[in-house]
Every structure is written in structure tokens, then in C-alpha cells.
Amino acid sequence: MSMTVGTSQTALCSAELARASAERESIRKQSRDLQSAATGVEAKLKAFGASGLLATMYSQDKNGSAFQTFARSAVRELCKSYRQLNQTLADSDRLSNEGRALLDKVKELLTGEHADAFAEMGLSLNRYTGELKFDEHTFAEKIAGDPEGVRKLLLDKKYLGPAVSDVVETILKQSDGYYFNPAYRNQPAMDVYA
Fold first, then answer.
1. Within the chain, where are the H helices?
2. Would you tell me how many other CB atoms lie within 10 Å of the CB of residue 72?
3. Digitized pLDDT (tens) for each residue of the chain, 194 residues in all
4. What is the Cα–Cα distance from 163 to 186, expressed in whole angstroms?
């Protein structure tokens, strides 16, 4: 009888170790995907920095078509890369509270007190899915009529560029797996003596 209990315990321990190993690998993959998506957003954010190309072009000729065309392209590409980041986080079934908080930072910006201003500029965020939408036609009209207002929403502190940049910097400086919970943490302990 004791041999059977010992063999059962060994089998259960082996199964637990295999499951834990698979969990760690799953979390490592999700972490790599998140890092990759964050790096993609980081690359698109270079244009939105204080000394980035958008600010430089604005200071040189805010009413020029080159600035307006570049701004539209930069926002389109930022939205595309942000969608990938959002999707990576949203697809995880192991997202931690810290990971959810990252998504909430951008959601709060685009659905909060300045939501109407962003919508008038052609940017909106689905409150439930976090999907970022960009209407280029609306953006083109807004930037032609109010380049200063668009510049403020894109570049000023606490607005789009800096807010997304804060999220990306936070992601990139955390350790592997920080934003994901292993599934086995959420399950009750197994009773190996049953």
C-alpha cells in the first residue's frame, strides 16, 4: 500500500512539474510577444518626442502640407502598433492586475475628459475592447483647421504621445513575466494524499 501511495505521489509531482514548466514557457512566450509589441510602439513614438520630427516640422511650418501629411502618417502608424500591443495584452488569459492597469492608462486618456477633443481629431477608443480607431479624413480636416490643437493632443505632456510612451517604458523596464499570472497560482492546491 505504501508503495502505491509513493508512486502516486511521484506521478502527481511529475505531472505538477510538467504543468508548471509548460506554464513558465507560456508566460515567457507571452512576455516575448509583449516586449516585441512594446518595442514596435516605441519605434513609432520617436516622432512624438519633444525633439521628434513632429515637433520639429510643426515649429518650422505648422500649416504646411508636409507637416500635416507626416502627422497623419505618424498617427496612423502609432495606432497600428498600439493595436498590436493592446491585442497582445487583451489576448492573454493570464494578464495580471498590473497588465490591466497598463491598458487602463491609455483608455482613461482617450475616454476621459478629453475624449471629445480626440474624437474631433479622428481618434477614438472602444471602452470595452481597447481598440484604437483612427479616422484619417477627420484628422486631415482637424489638423488643417487647428494645427495647434492637434499638436497639443499629440505631443503635450499627459496627452497621447507621452501617455503611450509612459506605458511602453513601463513595459520595457519590467522583468520577464511581470504582467502575467501563472494559471497554477489561481488553482486550488492538489491533495496528494486523497
1. 2-45, 53-61, 65-91, 97-111, 115-120, 136-145, 147-155, 160-173
2. 18
3. 445 555 666 766 777 777 777 777 777 888 888 888 888 989 999 999 888 999 999 999 888 889 999 999 999 999 999 999 888 888 877 777 887 787 788 888 888 888 999 999 999 988 777 888 999 999 999 999 999 999 999 999 889 999 889 888 888 887 766 777 766 444 443 333 33
4. 32
Collapsing DSSP to helix, strand or coil, 180 comes out as: strand
Q: What is the number of other CB atoms lying within 10 angstroms of the CB of residue 132?
A: 24
Alpha-carbon separation of residue 154 from 48, 113, 129 (angstroms):
7, 15, 22
Estimate to the nearest angstrom the gap between the alpha carbon of 39 and the chain centroid. 10
**Under 8 Å between Cβ of 68 and 144:** yes
Distance, in Å, from the CA atom of 52 to the CA atom of 45, rounded to the nearest integer, reads: 9
- Amino acid identity of 88? T
Picking from 131, 130, 118, the residue whose alpha carbon sits closest to that of residue 159 is 118
C-alpha 141/C-alpha 74 separation (Å) is 16
Q: Rounded distance, CA 35 to CA 88, Å?
A: 10
Q: Give the pairing of strands 123-125 and 132-134.
A: antiparallel
**Phi/psi at 100 (5° precision):** -65, -40
